[in-house]
Every structure is written in C-alpha cells, then in structure tokens.
Amino acid sequence: MSVKAFAVIAGIGSGTGTWLARRFAKAYPVALLARNPESYEALVKEINSDGGRAIGISADVSSEASVKSAFKTIAQEYNDAPCAAAIYNASGGFVKKPFLETRVEDLGKGWTVTVKGALFFSQATIPLMLKHAEDDSAQYPPTIIFTGATASVKANAQMSSFAAPKWALRAMSTSLAKEFAPKGVHVVHTVIDGVIDIPKSQDMLKDMPWNARIGPEDIAKTYWDLHTQSRRAFTNEVDIRPMLEKW
Amino acid sequence: MSVKAFAVIAGIGSGTGTWLARRFAKAYPVALLARNPESYEALVKEINSDGGRAIGISADVSSEASVKSAFKTIAQEYNDAPCAAAIYNASGGFVKKPFLETRVEDLGKGWTVTVKGALFFSQATIPLMLKHAEDDSAQYPPTIIFTGATASVKANAQMSSFAAPKWALRAMSTSLAKEFAPKGVHVVHTVIDGVIDIPKSQDMLKDMPWNARIGPEDIAKTYWDLHTQSRRAFTNEVDIRPMLEKW
Amino acid sequence: MSVKAFAVIAGIGSGTGTWLARRFAKAYPVALLARNPESYEALVKEINSDGGRAIGISADVSSEASVKSAFKTIAQEYNDAPCAAAIYNASGGFVKKPFLETRVEDLGKGWTVTVKGALFFSQATIPLMLKHAEDDSAQYPPTIIFTGATASVKANAQMSSFAAPKWALRAMSTSLAKEFAPKGVHVVHTVIDGVIDIPKSQDMLKDMPWNARIGPEDIAKTYWDLHTQSRRAFTNEVDIRPMLEKW
Amino acid sequence: MSVKAFAVIAGIGSGTGTWLARRFAKAYPVALLARNPESYEALVKEINSDGGRAIGISADVSSEASVKSAFKTIAQEYNDAPCAAAIYNASGGFVKKPFLETRVEDLGKGWTVTVKGALFFSQATIPLMLKHAEDDSAQYPPTIIFTGATASVKANAQMSSFAAPKWALRAMSTSLAKEFAPKGVHVVHTVIDGVIDIPKSQDMLKDMPWNARIGPEDIAKTYWDLHTQSRRAFTNEVDIRPMLEKW
C-alpha cells in the first residue's frame, strides 16, 4: 500500500511517546524510534492490529549514522513518502546535583540526547517536510514538535546540567521556526511543566492527586491540535500543566 | 429549553469575534456582547437560523454597571446557567504616537477597555465558571481566554499607550490562571502576533499575501482546542502567527 | 548660583528615595517631589547643610497639573537648567487580595500612581533631558530610571491589582528606551526583587537577617552606576536582590 | 609580595578582555587566560609596568586538564589566594548558516567553548570565591561574570549553532546565581547586545558611527560596577547596548 505521508516519533520509551504514537497513528502511518526494541514492540503490534500502520526502528538519536540509517529504513518501508509530522520527545534524563559535584559527563548526556539528537532528527525530517509543504493536497502543514520541560524556561539551583541543554533546545526550536515557517513548516516547542502520569514516574507520583499530574493522552491531544493548525495560525510555543501545578 | 451551560464573548465587532461566536455556538448557547447592536444582529440571526442559539446584548465593557446588567440579562435568558467558556476579545484600539505627543487619554482608552473591562468581565464570569467546574457531567473545564497582541510581549518605540495596557492584561491573565486553576478554571492568554484577515484591516492587508495574514477562523479553531483541554493539561499561553510573519 | 543641570526624584517618602537623593545630591542640585512636605523637609535641610543643594516640592504625581506646577517651580529655582537625571520611584502601594474581592479602585490606585504618574513625570523630564543630551560638556548622558518590583516580571495569584500596573510601567519604560536612546537619553527599568530595609518595612523585616534585605543605599549606588554609563553602553534593565532572596 | 585576593579573566584575545583586565588590575593582581600567549603578552607587560600585577597563562578553556593546570599555576604565583572576581569572556565564535547546511561540529564548537568551558572555569573559581566570601575583611563580595550576547536571549533564523550554546550558558549562570548567592557569591550574566568597538570587528564597523558601537572600556566599567555591589543588592543580569542599537 502506498503511503502518502508519514509521522515519526523519537523517544517512544518515555510513556508519553506511546500516546503520541496512538494519536498520530489515527491519521498517518507512523515510524517509532527508540534505542531499545522493547520500547516499541507491543505498541507497533497494537497499532497494526487496531487498523493503523506502524513500524518500529531501533535507533540511537545521538548518533548521526544511526538516525540516517533509521530514515533510510523509513524511506524503504514508506516508499519515500514525505513527512507530515515529526515529534522529538527524547531527553537526556533528569539531573539535579550540587554544581561542584557536577561532572562534564552529566552536562554532556543532556547535550548529546537533547540537543545533538534534535539536530540530527531535524536534519533528517525537515527536507521530508519541505516536500510535504509543497503538496497542495496535504490536509495540514507539516509540523515538527520538540518536547521541553519546566527547566526549558527556569534554571533552578543545582539544575544546570538539566536546564542548559533544555534552554539550548528551545533556542534551536525558535530558530527553526523562524527559518522554516516561511517555507510552510510549522515548528513548535512545548513546555511540559509538571510530572507526567506515566509508569516510570510512579514513585514520584504516589502522593499526588490525579489532577496534579499531566495526562500523557492530554499531551497527545494538544500535539494533534497544534499539528492541525493552518498556515495562517501557527503556534510556536505552548505551556502545558495540570490544574494543581504551582508555577 | 433549559440551558446547561453557555459561552460568552465580549468584543464581537472585531471580526475575529464573529468566528469565535460561530465556533463556540456549535457546542453552547452563546451570549454576544458589543457596544453597538449592529455588531451582532446579523450574527445572532445567522446562528439561530443555523440551529444554534445566540443572544446579543448591547454592553459597554468599560462600565461595571453595564457589564452587570448584561450578565443579568444572560441569567434571565439562559436560566442562571453556569458559564462554560468566556472570551475577552475587546481592545482599546491601536495607538502609535511619539511619546511627547501622547495624551493621558491615549493611554486611558487602552486601560479602560483592555484592563478595566477585563476586570469587570472576569468578575462577572468567574463565579459562573466556578459553578461549572463543580459540575461533574461537564464535558470540558470552564475556560476564560483573553486576547492579546504582539504588543503584549513587545513594547516598541512610540507604542507605550498600546503596549502598557496589553502588558497589564497579560499580568492579570497570569495571576488569574494561578489563582483559579486549582479550582478547575482554565485561564488562557493569547498573543495574536500579526494582522488578522478581517474586513476592517483591508487597507493594511491589501499588499499582503493570504499566508501573511492570520485567519480569524483559525484563531477560533485554536481557542476551541484550548477550551477542550483537560484539567490535566492546561495551556496558559499561546502565540499565533501566520507562516510569513517576521518575529 | 547658576545651575548647569539638576536631578529630580519623585517618591521621596519611600525610604529608598532618601538614599537616592543623597547619592545624586553629591553631583547635582536635586529637586525632591513628595505629596507630603514631611517626607522631604528634613532631607532637604540635611543636603543643604552638607554642602549640596536641594529643594522639596509638594506634588501629586498622579495629577498632570500638579506635576506641571512642580516643574515650573524647578525651572524657577534652577534657572531653566536641563535635567541630568530623573528617577520615578513612586508606586501605588502593595495590594494582595482574592480576585473576586478586588475592586476597580484597587487596580485604579496602582494605575494612577504607577502608570499615569510615570507618564506625567516622563513628559515633564524628557524634554529637559533632550536639552541636556545636546550639551557636549555634560559628563554623563541624561538618565531616567523607573523603579519596578518583583511584580513587574511575575504575576502571582491574588496580585493582579499590583502586578498589572507594574507590567504596564515596564512596557512604558521599554518603549521609551527604544524611542529616546537614539536621541541620547538613557532609560532604565529596575526590578527590585525583595524587601527593602527601610523603616516602613520593619514589621515585615523583623525576622529577616540583614542580608535577606535589600539595602536602600545599595540601590542608590546601582542607580548612580547606571547614570554614569556612557552612550556606548546603556543598560536598560537590571534586577536587584539580596543574597538570601529566593527567586 | 603576598596576594590577598586575585581576579581572573578567561578570553583575553577578544579585545574586550583587554579592557576588563586593565580595569580589574587597578584593584587586584590579575591572571589572564588565553589560548595563545600573543593574546596577553603585551597586556601583562603593560599592567606590570603601570604599577599593577598580572600573569598570563596559556590555557584551553575547553579542556578540563588545561583549566586545572592554569589554576595550579595561579595558586603558585598568587600564594593560594582566594578569588575576588572571575570573568568568563570566552566564546565559541559567531556562526550563521542555513540549518540544513549546519554540521554537528558547528554546534559543537559553541558548546565546547561557551558551555563546557564555563563549567570548567566555574568549578575552578567558585571554591576560591567561597573562600573569599568568608573573609570579613574583603571589600566586595566575590563575583563571577559570564559574558553573553544578543543571541543569549534571541534565536533568529540560521542562528541555532550560535544561540543554542548561548542560551545554555544563560541557564547555567542563572542556576549558579541561585545556588551560590546564599553563600555570598555574586553571579552575573550579561547580554552584550551590539557590535563591540574592537580591532577584530573593524570590517563590520566601518560604516557605523561611534555611538552605534559598544565601547569595550564601557563594558569594563559596568563589570566593575557589578563587582562592587553589596550582598544586599546583587544584580544577576544586565543588558548593554549602544545608544543607536535597534532592539
């Protein structure tokens, strides 16, 4: 079956990625990237058996060669289709540490996944989105969304290793928005301000009421709403927080 | 017919208000406020004949008595229903003037409509939204949206009379978001960054391509998308601009 | 004795104003504005007996007529001298109140003093600063400084009546900086982020260590440092906080 | 001669560093770091013959070993003195390039010098500043200043490789300010918004009037003013621009 356009999501293992994949799979064949196949195998099966179409690809977003290889596989599987939506949901992991105990590796991990990975992912997807932007029959403008966090706009004590790469990613997203909007590509940065209600956060969440937690399915709704904006109304940044969040 | 909940929009004459009214009227009976009945008469007729329900009320948002009187009328017409959505789309009008020629009246006009009006409108609607927030059968959290502009986040030369009230409104929206989110009310400020494609802007628009203009129907889509966010994913600010906007 | 240039400070009663007056009086004859003569009488006497030169003028900054009258007095006393430095240190007073109990008067008080007063003060001083900017023998560029607060950049719950005017003032300062820097006038906005160690704050301060409080004499040092910047290095905003402030 | 406290400046070759060194050398023995000895040799001679005290050290700030070795030399030369002031003025160099032509090396260069270098420099200096903070006879609180640029707060099209590291540095500075202010260390980030009037910018400057350029000696004045703030009035960020800058 020929694919008209696909969606790609990097960072499937996070819990949020699962819901993003389900949402975008209602409209597009999806390609799901994660380092570990266990992160996507059940989800690929679920989407394919629910009438959608999904492929999973093991990839290390911090390696340019690995990202290139993943997009070669996508091109083969999805017959060189253009890209309708790309979501960069990978992150170097939370770090909080007294500054004088910080090692360059702490900072480097965030840099590698959050920033370098975003560079490789964007360079692989944007050309495929420029192609989609020229397709007058496309329903929505091609959209690339970068997932940020509270630390993308705040930099609290002991948080420089986490915040510095997040601020850098926000800068990159802003710069891309200005460069590619005139060519029809919609670029968005999100500030996910709170704890997401996903399995790996259960320890942190156990005393938090349901409405102090961000719903991953609700993040997916907002990402879809952003994707379906017209070229006459691009949103380039949104914040997302649960009703009980202090900010 | 009993009304379960209504939506109210202040500032219908602007062009954007028309599209907001059409969108929200698909889901709720709407109350449309404008100083001049000519601003809403045709629209009220259109909505009512299309199967929706609308009332128009002549009101001066800068007068507390007038706002109170308008909400008394709404209570009568819509049987004391709670408020599901409220949009403050009124504005004191664009002013650009050398500072030394600025009169206190230039500044005062923006203050009166943009800030005082928002105070009166919020005080009238928030109690009706708190009531809606307690209704477990409500589909979406009650939402109040304040329409801002480029000048809400920038303050260029000769623009203090326009920007000062807009910055003040953004402060008010932020403060309300923090006070009322824990009670289930969703408060949003929007930065409409560009020229909206509405009749009254035609002079300014005549040399601008379609995709350098913001679509008012696209603003309405985004406002609706914001209203339908869950209590586990409130967005408190969005920017909206056309693909060809420089920023 | 002929006056080459003078400095003017509005808002002397606040405690900080006293230190600002002392600092600027080392370099310029000063004019001190306060509603109540008791706010400046002892200070005027002190400065004049310490070898400086000071006049006090009773003025209501929220009244255009009163501000004009004050500057007429200054012109007479200081022989139509240009203005080297102007500090707007007046404020409508702190307000924190549940939004639904807020009255338009709560908001209006801040608006009147913080924003309208700044307009009148700026319109009175900027022409006298443009004159100073043309004087090649002037040692420093003419400088107008607006005193802001934490609430100039944050808008917490229940703070809209305080924050809205402060955000508006910040917008005005930014706009003035952009309009008048090219003409040689240096415009600055300060974010005083913390409690100032002045007599009227003693209740709030009693359990706070000395280094959790902002020193009013230290604010004066920074204002003077800003005034003495050259036309090749204007700072348009500074934050000021004590070492123990959380932010 | 025993040294009570020293100042250290990284990034001497830039032109601004020269003026920073001259200014701080009026008060402290200085240590000047640059990759290339040619960058500091004449300056070290000048300061020493003008009655100041200076040492130059060849160091690569992007190498942890090189930074450690430099501070070992400083400790030997300046008898393990505490550090009164540290200025991180190094930068990865300006890059502007279409995003799809950007190489990971373009981004990496900024990351290495601007962010990793700042980490190494901060980790070497902060312990020596904590020591100085405990010295009650010290005249001014120890101060570390990071030099940023327009791109620290803006991220224009084609500028992601330059802006991303600058935003990251601003995050790091903010985080350090919050962690170390309570321990008496003053941390500042500066936004140098314009072209500095230094030899290496002459091509860019040739059609710009003198007051459209930032004076490097004026940057030095502001850095000194920041250093001399008391613990009751820390400024954590300043912007600096010439009077003719558009912003």
Automatic annotation (TrEMBL), chains A, B, C, D:
<dbReference type="InterPro" id="IPR036291">
    <property type="entry name" value="NAD(P)-bd_dom_sf"/>
</dbReference>
<dbReference type="Pfam" id="PF00106">
    <property type="entry name" value="adh_short"/>
</dbReference>
<dbReference type="InterPro" id="IPR002347">
    <property type="entry name" value="SDR_fam"/>
</dbReference>
<protein>
    <recommendedName>
        <fullName>NAD(P)-binding protein</fullName>
    </recommendedName>
</protein>
